Amino acid sequence: MDNETKFMITCMLFAAICSSVSSDEWKATVVKSIDALVTSCVVVPCSFSHTGGNLPSSRLRGIWHEKDGTKRNIYHEDPTLIKDNFKDRTKLVGRLGQNNCTLEITGVKDHDNGPFCFRVELVRTENNDPTKDKFFFVEDCVELNMLTEPLKPAVIKPKTATLGEPYTVTCSVIHTCPTHVPKLTWNLDSTNIIVHHKDIKQGNWETQSILTVIPEEKDDNREITCTAEFNGGLKSSETFTLHVKRIENYNHIIIPAVVGIGTALLFGIFCIFMAKKYKNHIAELQNQEGTMWNRLSRLSRR
Ligand SMILES: *[C@@H]1O[C@H](CO)[C@@H](O)[C@H](O)[C@H]1NC(C)=O
């Protein structure tokens, strides 16, 4: 074999190895940072993908660990391998078989800031010989931004309410705990409240409460409060003052005006009509007079 052939073979081998590795390409996608409210829960969105064909989900193992130590697990399918202060607080809410590695942490503590990394392992057993198991894995990490105070709800409302007409106010709050959503309450009784939950991406969710009331006179200057109670018990609220306006009513001006103008018009038409009629009558009389005179003069000439 000459040198050139050797070089060719080396190249081909190298290419073959490269393509076999990249045909089994893994990718994990974890949100880079997410707010987490102390005492509440946080759900960290995570997904992974691979290009190596169908995966037997029984061979997949999803682990979450602290970034500075692959052995410091915060989630593992074997609970004895989870760090003490994360025991019973973490749960894989995504299904690994659906490439979903979403993690839930409950009872968030102010030192839970991470970073935490997801690691998926695929165990490939050849001939059921554990010594020949092969592991493939990827990692991606998230940082938790700790909030010790909950975010305030935001209220969107029309400037003024009109007496007796439906008035709609929207109260919404952003959170990262979609498995135990915050409760929004109002300080007044209404049966007309609609609640929505929206995924606003990157692990953030919005809970919205839409209240519709029909204001009465006594509701003028009333303080309306929307309170958000988060999982874990922390609360925040937003208050505003309702201003109730009467419906502007111009009937007391419009009705007499219409009646007045209408009467004037009718009277006008009547006058014109009468004037015409009278004129015709006079003309007729004059004609009659004329013929009478002619007759009389003819008679006198005889
Ligand atoms: C992953 O699972 C979570 C929790 O069940 C779910 O909310 C989310 O939509 C899933 N993500 C995808 C990409 O399917």
Automatic annotation (TrEMBL):
Keywords: Membrane, Signal, Transmembrane, Transmembrane helix. This is Ig-like domain-containing protein. The chain crosses the membrane at residues 253-275. It comes from the Eukaryota. It comes from Oreochromis niloticus (Nile tilapia). Residues 153-241 form the Ig-like domain. PANTHER family: MYELIN-ASSOCIATED GLYCOPROTEIN-LIKE-RELATED, SI:CH211-171H4.5-RELATED. Residues 1-23 form the signal peptide.
